[in-house]
Every structure is written in structure tokens, then in C-alpha cells.
Amino acid sequence: YDVLFLNDEVTTVEFVMKVLINIFHKTKDQAVSITEHIHKKGKGVVGTYLYEIAEQKGIETTLLAREENYPLQVKVQRQK
User: Fold this and answer.
1) Residue 35, phi then psi, degrees to nearest 5
2) Per residue in 21-80, pLDDT tens?
3) H helices within 23-78, ranges in order?
4) Is the dihedral of CA 23, 35, 74, 4 positive or negative?
5) What span, in angstroms and rounded, lies between the C-alpha atoms of 9 and 47?
């Protein structure tokens, strides 16, 4: 299952980078590349996992975003 982030005008690049590095275990270079893609395209896949792992990472990210008052939307969908 793919985990997608949807771009918005409020969530900071710094927050997205922090989540990609800490929750999705991306390198800094990977995080920069993914963040730029999301910003340019409006959404992007941040990782592909088994369903349970994808759901858990989506929940962790959403909870952290809300704690920091960001409206980041995270979607989990069957891999295309």
C-alpha cells in the first residue's frame, strides 16, 4: 500500500522533512526530493508498505501533524 501526502499551504517543508526522516526513515536527500515532488505535483508517494505498516505510519504522521497544528493530509491506498 502506498502512503501519500497531499500538499497544502500551511504545513511547513521542515515538518514534512522531519516526518519523512523520523517516521518513514528516509535520508535527508530522499526527504528533500520527495518534499519537492509533493510541492510541485500537489501530492506524492512517501513510501510503500504492507497494509498494517502503511496504516500505522499514516496514523502516526496525522497525529503528529495535528499536535503541531498542521492540516497535512495522509492517504493510504492500494499500490497502483
Assistant:
1) -60, -45
2) 999 999 999 999 999 999 999 999 999 999 999 999 999 999 999 999 999 999 999 987
3) 28-41, 51-67
4) negative
5) 22
